[in-house]
Design a protein that fits this description.
Layout: E1 11-15, H1 20-31, E2 35-40, H2 43-55, E3 60-64, H3 70-84, E4 89-92, H4 107-135, E5 138-143, H5 158-178, E6 183-190, H6 205-214, H7 227-234, E7 245-248
Parallel strand pairs: 1-2, 1-4, 2-3, 4-5, 5-6, 6-7
The structure holds NADP nicotinamide-adenine-dinucleotide phosphate.
Length: 255
C-alpha cells in the first residue's frame, strides 16, 4: 500500500543520533523505508545503532562528526555523498542545553549551547543545501523546542531559549529563500521527552509533577510521539508546507 509518508528510496541524515530523540528518529526513518546516515561524536553508539538498522534491511552509514566544526561537517557530507550518491533529507537534531539565567550563565556555557544548537545547524545546512540546490529537491527538519517561543518563570534556560528562538526564525528564513529550489524547511518543537538531556533534572519527581500540572495532556511525551511530525516534514506529505514549526508539546504552547 502506498503511503504519503513513505520514505522508501530516500537518503536521510540525522544528526545527534547517538542518543535520545536522534536514535528514536533514525529507527523510525528506517522503519518508513529510508536509508540513513547517522552522525554524532560518540561513534561506538552509532555502531550499535547501525547494527539494529541493518537488521531492519536498510542501508546505514555511521559518521563521527562534531557539528560545531565546519571541517568535520564538510568531510561528513562528502563521505555521505560518496556512499549514497545523494541526500534527500536533513534532520538537524544534535543539541545541548544549559541551565541558567543571563546573570548566572558563563560565556563558555553560552557559547557551547549556541555553537551546537545554532552554528551546528548553520554548518550542516550550508553543506547539505549545496547538494539539495543542485538537485532542486530537499527536505530539512530542524529540532526547535517550546523554548523557541516561550520563556519560563521558574526555570531560566536563557542560552537554550535564545538558540531555539534562532532556529524557529532561521527555519522561516531558509524556507522563504530556498522555496525556489524545491527545498522545504520546517521545524518540530518538543516540550518534554525523557532523554540524556532531560532525565536528571526535569524528570525528578517534583519537576515532573509541576510539568504534568501545567501541560494540558498531563504527561511528558513518550518515545515515538515525535516520529509522526518529523516524518511528515521529511516526506512528500508536506510537499506544500514550509517555514513552519509544529509544537509536539502535549498542548504546552496552547495555554
Ligand atoms: N528531550 C526533550 O525534552 C527535548 C525538548 C525540546 C527539544 N529537544 C531537542 O531535541 C534534540 C535532541 O535532544 P535529546 O533530548 O535527544 O538530547 P540527548 O539525548 O542529549 O541527545 C543529544 C544528541 O546530540 C548530539 N550532540 C551534541 N553535541 C554535538 C556535537 N557538537 N556534534 C554532534 N552531535 C552532538 C549527542 O551526541 P554525541 O554526544 O555523541 O555527540 C546526542 O546524540 C536537541 O536539539 C534538543 O534541544 C529535546
Amino acid at each position: 500500500m502506498s503511503s504519503l509518508f513513505d520514505l522508501t528510496g530516500k537518503v536521510a541524515i540525522i544528526t545527534g543520533a547517538s542518543s535520545g530523540i536522534g536514535t528514536q528518529l533514525a529507527r523510525a526513518f528506517a522503519r518508513e523505508g529510508a536509508d540513513v546516515a547517522i552522525l554524532a561524536r560518540r561513534y561506538e553508539k552509532l555502531e550499535e545503532l547501525s547494527k539494529e538498522i541493518e537488521a531492519m534491511g536498510r542501508k546505514v552509514l555511521p559518521v563521527k562528526c562534531d557539528v560545531t566544526n565546519e571541517e568535520n561537517v564538510k568531510t561528513a557530507v562528502k563521505e555521505i555523498i560518496d556512499h549514497f550518491g545523494k541526500i534527500d533529507i536533513l534532520v538537524n537534531n544534535a543539541g545541548v542545553a544549559a541551565e541558567g539565567a543571563v546573570d548566572s550563565i558563563t560565556e563558555e556555557e553560552w557559547d557551547k549551547v549556541y555553537n551546537t544548537n545554532v552554528k551546528g545547524v548553520f554548518f550542516m545546512t550550508k553543506h547539505v543545501a549545496k547538494v539539495m540546490i543542485e538537485r532542486k529537491y530537499g527536505k530539512i527538519v530542524n529540532l526547535a523546542s517550546i523554548y523557541g517561543i516561550t520563556g519560563s518563570k521558574t526555570s531560566p534556560v536563557h542560552a537554550y531559549q535564545a538558540s531555539k528562538g534562532a532556529i524557529v526564525n532561521l527555519t522561516r528564513g531558509l524556507a522563504a529563500y530556498w522555496g525556489k529550489f524545491g527545498i522545504t524547511v520546517n521545524a518540530v518543537g518538543p516540550s518534554l521527552f525523557e532523554t540524556e538531556m532531560t532525565k536528571d533534572g526535569l524528570f525528578e519527581e517534583q519537576n515532573l509533577r509541576m510539568y504534568n500540572a501545567l501541560v494540558p495532556l498531563g504527561r511528558p511525551g513518550k518515545p515515538g510521539e515525535l516520529d509522526g511530525a518529523v516524518i511528515y516534514f521529511a516526506s512528500d506529505a508536506s510537499s506544500y508546507t514550509t517555514g513552519q514549526t509544529l509544537f509536539v508539546d502535549g498542548g504546552w504552547t496552547s495555554v
